[in-house]
Amino acid sequence: MERTFVMVKPDGVQRGLIGEIVSRFEARGLKLAGARLELLPEERVIEQYREHREKPFFPGLAAYIMSGPCFLMAWEGKGAVAVVRRMIGATNPAEAAPGSIRGDFALDIGRNVIHASDSPESAARELGIHFAPGELVDYKKIDESVIYE
Ligand code: IDP
Ligand code: MG
């Protein structure tokens, strides 16, 4: 089983999309291991987006992410990192497939509603930035026997 870090960005929170987004991951069969609504401090935004620190869009990105609360989640399941990336869709919502979260709910690359880790390595790193050890919950979900072979 794999865990991935997923975050509804401030535009998604303000637009009332938390429930819709959580529902999609639940319906897919993924298991919620932790969640928190939070106004992110600048240090953690810089840490999360450190690969983009020198890019021209970084100041705007950081201001957007800190413009309101984000909804932070850890989702668990078989191949969760890649599965969730496909569910959120392409970075630029104009190119995101219909049926994906960005393809259904966004239009602008600078307001693309959701973040998800892009590899198992970044998932481990990002979960470590936002969740304390022990904050994520290990439990058995009763539908596992019908979701997995
Ligand atoms: P990802 O979120 O699909 O992993 P990344 O390339 O890692 O995409 O970029 C991180 C975030 O930075 C994007 O989700 C988007 O919010 C923002 N971003 C990326 N490229 C641009 C851009 O060209 N203009 C404005 N914002 C951008
Ligand atoms: Mg990324």
Automatic annotation (TrEMBL):
Location, primary (coarse class): cytoplasm
One of the GO biological process terms: CTP biosynthetic process
Record keyword Isomerase present: no
Source superkingdom: Archaea
Protein localization: Cytoplasm
Coiled coil: none
Catalytic function, reaction form: a 2'-deoxyribonucleoside 5'-diphosphate + ATP = a 2'-deoxyribonucleoside 5'-triphosphate + ADP; a ribonucleoside 5'-diphosphate + ATP = a ribonucleoside 5'-triphosphate + ADP
Keywords: ATP-binding, Cytoplasm, Kinase, Magnesium, Metal-binding, Nucleotide metabolism, Nucleotide-binding, Phosphoprotein, Transferase
Pfam families cross-referenced by the UniProt entry: NDK
E.C. number(s) listed in UniProt: 2.7.4.6
Cofactor(s) the protein needs: Mg(2+)
Gene3D superfamilies: Nucleoside diphosphate kinase-like domain
Domain Nucleoside diphosphate kinase-like: 1-138
SMART domains assigned: NDK (SM00562)
Family per similarity comment: Belongs to the NDK family.
Its biological purpose: Major role in the synthesis of nucleoside triphosphates other than ATP. The ATP gamma phosphate is transferred to the NDP beta phosphate via a ping-pong mechanism, using a phosphorylated active-site intermediate.
Descriptive protein name: Nucleoside diphosphate kinase
Originating organism: Methanoculleus palmolei
Lineage: Archaea, Methanobacteriati, Methanobacteriota, Stenosarchaea group, Methanomicrobia
